[in-house]
């Protein structure tokens, strides 16, 4: 079973299935279950986009997907570009990340049960799913880049000084990619991210950044996003990655 995590502007195109509330020990998560296609749809901001990125219950969301039998996750994220050659209206596929978040619960292993875990994240995104995602993008001739995703706390946009720093270490900036990727890894789930480049970041853009600019660009990309998701849903997976073995040699006994 595959889980699709939708973000900004995506709930309008991925909205089929039976709505269900999943109760976990980390809180509640609302999902749409498409039993016909073995798909679980989850909207991290809520169906009405009323949860800001720093208030999302990432642990409940990922744990709920795991309890429903999801073993692969395709996350859809909106990002701002740190580089002029990564243009709004194109896609971005992360192969690594750097995070500058501050207040988020970012692990299932906080030591309360006496277990200390240090997972390896030398390859944080599932190589198999990432390969398939890039193959889909190539076959559809959709322009995309790949590189380092910088995650910030939000909900505000970044300052010019912050952007000047971030562009020395990364390629795009978003607010939702972390800790999703790590939580999925801790539970042995495959995780890949399809990022929609919605804007140039502050200081790179020639004008003041607005929320409407972000949503307008994503609206224009909706049809492409839906086609990519449909292609991924119908791909034949041959699990060759080691994502499910993430806890091997990671637990201090």
From TrEMBL:
GO CC term, one of those recorded: cytosol
Pfam families from the UniProt entry: PNP_UDP_1
Segments passing through the bilayer: none
Gene Ontology biological process terms from the UniProt entry: L-methionine salvage from methylthioadenosine; purine ribonucleoside salvage
Top-level taxon of the source organism: Archaea
Keywords in alphabetical order: Glycosyltransferase, Purine salvage, Transferase
Gene Ontology molecular function terms on file: S-methyl-5-thioadenosine phosphorylase activity
Site positions (Important for substrate specificity): 158, 211
Pathway involvement of the protein, from the record: Purine metabolism; purine nucleoside salvage
InterPro entries reported in the protein's UniProt record: MTAP (IPR010044), Nucleoside_phosphorylase_d (IPR000845), Nucleoside_phosphorylase_sf (IPR035994)
Domain Nucleoside phosphorylase: 2-232
Catalytic activity: a purine D-ribonucleoside + phosphate = a purine nucleobase + alpha-D-ribose 1-phosphate
EC class (word): transferase
More about this protein: Although this enzyme belongs to the family of MTA phosphorylases based on sequence homology, it lacks several conserved amino acids in the substrate binding pocket that confer specificity towards MTA.
Entry function: Purine nucleoside phosphorylase involved in purine salvage.
Record-linked PANTHER family: S-METHYL-5'-THIOADENOSINE PHOSPHORYLASE
Subunit annotation: Homohexamer. Dimer of a homotrimer.
HAMAP family: MTAP
Similarity field: Belongs to the PNP/MTAP phosphorylase family. MTAP subfamily.
Name of the protein in question: Purine nucleoside phosphorylase
Taxonomic lineage from the root: Archaea, Methanobacteriati, Methanobacteriota, Methanomada group, Methanococci
């Amino acid at each position: 079973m595959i889980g699709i995590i939708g973000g900004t502007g995506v709930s309008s195109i991925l909205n089929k299935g039976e709505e269900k509330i999943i109760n976990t020990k980390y809180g509640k998560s609302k999902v749409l279950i498409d039993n016909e296609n073995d798909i679980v749809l989850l909207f991290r901001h809520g169906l009405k986009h009323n949860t800001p990125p720093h208030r999302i219950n990432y642990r409940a969301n990922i744990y709920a997907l795991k309890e429903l039998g999801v073993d692969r996750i395709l996350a859809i994220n909106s990002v701002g570009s740190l580089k002029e050659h990564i243009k709004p209206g194109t896609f971005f596929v992360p192969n690594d990340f750097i995070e500058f978040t501050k207040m988020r619960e970012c692990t299932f292993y906080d030591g309360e049960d006496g277990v200390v875990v240090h997972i390896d994240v030398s390859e944080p995104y599932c190589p198999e799913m990432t390969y398939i995602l890039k193959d889909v993008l190539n076959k559809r001739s959709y322009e995309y880049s790949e590189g380092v995703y910088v995650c910030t706390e939000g909900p505000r946009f970044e300052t010019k000084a912050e952007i000047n720093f971030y562009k020395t270490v990364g390629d795009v900036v978003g607010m939702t990619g972390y800790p999703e990727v790590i939580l999925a890894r801790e539970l042995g789930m495959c995780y890949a991210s399809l990022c929609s480049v919605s804007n140039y970041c502050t200081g790179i853009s020639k004008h003041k950044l607005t929320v409407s600019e972000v949503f307008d660009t994503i609206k224009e990309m909706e049809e492409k996003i839906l086609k990519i998701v449909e292609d991924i849903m119908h791909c034949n997976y041959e699990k060759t990655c080691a994502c499910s073995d993430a806890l091997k040699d990671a637990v201090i006994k």
